[in-house]
Amino acid sequence: MNETTLRHAFLGNFLGHSVQWYKYTILAFLLVNPILLWAVGPFITGWALVAEFIFCLAMALKCYPLQPGGLLAFEAVLLGLTSPETIYHETSANFEVILLLIFMVAGIYFLKDLLLYIFTKLLIRVRSKIALSLGFCFAAAFLSAFLDALTVIAVVITVASGFYAVYHKVTSGKGFDSDHDHADDSGIGNETRNDLEEFRAYLRNLMMHAAVGTALGGVTTLVGEPQNLLIGGVVGWSFKEFFIHMAPVSLPVLVTGLLTCVLVEKFRIAGYGTQIPAASRRILEEYDRRSDASRTDKQKVALLVQGLVAVFLIIGLAFHWAAVGLIGLTVIVLATAFNGIVREHQLGHAFQEALPFTALLVVFFAIVGVIHDQHLIQPLITYAFTLPQETQVPFFFIANGLLSAITDNVFVATLYINEIKQALDAGQITREHFELLAVAINTGTNIPSVATPNGQAAFLFLLTSAIAPLIRLGYLRMVILALPYTITMSIAGLLASIYML
Asked: Which among 496, 501, 489, 484 is positioned nearest to 401, based on CA atoms?
């Protein structure tokens, strides 16, 4: 083999079927970072690495971010920008989230028949797209106030995947019960291709409304997001106290978000307002009719079991009987044991969706480790405390929002809440001002972070899920769809932090 042949073989294997310019870009990142470290030091190089990782997330449809992001994380360790110990610490600190991803997402998979049954009925009977969108957004907000946002998104993904699978299979000329590859559009005729694109846009709309809903509800309660528990624990708030302190900001933002949902649908803003094609509705109606007519007693019992398990899931999460992931594992055991799913290969499919994202999340913790070890955010925190106290609350809201849009909102909240706790202990601020800053930190990390998939784990999970490429939901499209919400909710949150606190 000559040198040219070897080079082509290497590039062919490197990042697989990704386009050539993307491969060269990742290689350039890997080559430039050591030079940057030598030339300008670890602080600038650290921020460059964060920007490069965000680029990998943005290009998720070109290449799954695990591989290029993992190479960047590996290089960061080799360059001394972070350490294996820091990555392990970040990972172990978020072990409950990892358990959730592994077991809860798989548990939802075994409830998919029930979810598809319920939401198919809902989609067919609710003809108004505005009412349906508002329903998805509000339901996600309500559930996320008591459940984890990733669990709620897992439900939405399962529902959307079910809808897409049914429609794509039938419009490809196959029967409802036929095996089918939903990623293969070769069976779609020219006369139905426009309908398929509209159906994809329709599902994108509903999924983004639900995703934003998880942020709207997640900010309101102590258990809504992981950083809420962290902040509430540091400040010493109970469930009721947390809700009351957040309400002056969280409730106006909730109302603003729901109004935005209505307006973007009514005026077809930023890609919203797409109606379900008539042919798609007819296929789903026919699927629902046939399913009802052909459902056996065994299938009816399976739906009943899934319903009872779903009730257990909701109650268990609402009353926090155990870590979310352990409840998810219980769901898997109950839903499979009583529905005859006992073969290993039957169980394996349930874990395919979550495990790649779990690996990506650990890579993300490595990038967070760079931010931590190189103190990338510290100058901003130092500057904040030089401002007059009356401007610190809105400043903390804005600063947390901007940082949470590009990095992990749990990490940002951890940094800021620990800093202001040290200021309180040192007597630099009063207890009252400390609580106001805690509200600003929590709302800042939860609300403006909807701007990008980086800020919310639920958004990142949606972006990297199997349904995203099927409905053409890429990074840039998510940013555009989130933009109206980002603007209205951030403005409402900022005004509330100035005038309501």
From this structure: 489
The pair of three-digit structure tokens given for residue 228, joined into one six-digit string: 């809420």
Conformation bin of residue 307: beta by default, left when phi > 0, alpha when psi is -120 to 50? alpha
Residues counted in the chain: 501
Identify the burial level of 426 via C-beta atoms within 10 angstroms of its C-beta, where 0-12 means exposed, 13-18 middle and 19 or more buried.
exposed
End-to-end Cα, the chain, rounded Å: 71
Count of the separate structural domains present in the chain: 2
CB-count burial class (<10 Å; 0-12, 13-18, 19+) for 297:
exposed
Q: How confident is the model at residue 256 (pLDDT cuts 50, 70, 90)?
A: very high
> Apex CA 172: angle with CA 168 and CA 178, to 5°?
80
Residue 350 gets which letter from DSSP? Answer: G
Closest Cα partner for 435 from 500, 491, 501? Answer: 501
Q: Could you tell me what percentage of the chain is helix, strand and coil, using 3-state DSSP and rounding each to the nearest 5? A: 75, 0, 25
Residue at 114 is within a domain:
yes
Judge contact between 1 and 43, C-beta under 8 A. no
Residues 159 and 75 in one domain: no
Residue whose entry in the numeric block shows the structure tokens 């198919």: 120
Range of the domain at 409: 93-501
The predicted-structure confidence for 59-76, as pLDDT tens digits, reads as follows 776 788 889 999 999 999
Residues 11-23, mean pLDDT to the nearest whole number: 84
Same domain? For 109 and 138 the reply is: yes
74: nearest Cα among 486, 284, 355, 367: 367
Asked if residue 11 is part of any domain, the answer here is no
Structure tokens at 412: 């940002």
Which alpha helices (H) appear in 338-456, and where do they start and end?
344-348, 354-373, 378-384, 389-406, 409-425, 431-446
299 in a domain, yes or no?
Answer: yes
Output 308 or 426, whichever has higher pLDDT: 308
Which of 6-10, 277-281, 383-387, 487-491 has the weakest average pLDDT?
Answer: 6-10
Domain co-membership, 25 together with 155 = no
Model confidence at 203: pLDDT above 90: yes
- CA separation for the pair 306, 113 (Å, rounded): 8
Structural domain contains residue 10: no
**pLDDT band, very low/low/confident/very high, at 408 (cuts 50, 70, 90):** low
The tens digit of pLDDT for each residue in 311-353 reads 888 788 777 788 778 888 998 999 889 888 878 777 887 787 6
Tell me the pLDDT band of 245, cut-offs 50, 70 and 90: very high
Q: How far apart are CA 134 and CA 262, in angstroms?
A: 7
Cα distances from 157 to residues 116, 207, 358, in angstroms, run 11, 8, 16
Domain termination site, one of 81, 106, 124? 81
The model's pTM: 0.79
Query: How deeply is 28 buried, as exposed, middle or buried, from its count of CB atoms within 10 A (0-12, 13-18, 19+)?
Result: exposed
